Amino acid sequence: xRLRPSGLQSYLGKMRGSTQGSPxxxxxPEVFWSWAGAFxxxxxxxxxxxxxxxxxxxxxxxxxxxxxxxLVFGAVRSPLAQPRNLIGGHILSALVGVTCWQxxxxxxxxAQSVAVATAIxxxxxxxxxxxxxxxxxxxxxxxxxxxxxMGYLFVLIPATLGPLVLLAVALLVNNxxxxxxxxxxxx
Length: 187
What we know:
Number of strands: 0
Distance between the termini: 59 Å
Shape: globular
Helix content: 55-70%
């Protein structure tokens, strides 16, 4: 009598010796353009941050922009990387995050969970789902006293301006090679 392997054993067996189910290998030109776009996009945000915002106790650079760069430059055709999602996802999530901090900041665990869950729900309802938006909502709560002092200014700087800078760079870089086209759709 032969025993059937469990689902996990079967899955692990397939993964060990097979590339079936793996994502396709990305061609080197695609890797180059993803690298160049991410470099230029984050460099633009970081340079603007250092030049104009560092002395003003404002921050243009937030961690969620790194995740946005992965989508906008590394997955240019993804619906999650399109301008509506990039901009709308960050703005909605920042609004939710700041509001949750102001209303629920006395219970940070509650503010964090309500902010991320609500940001996801609103992004779904508005068709602006952008995974880094969840991080933007979270940053509004777990950020420093400087972030909290910004209040709703956080929605403009960095949550709107940062993604707009990435979008400008994406429009330039992602449309240079013939094999890439960005955006797939605006609205």
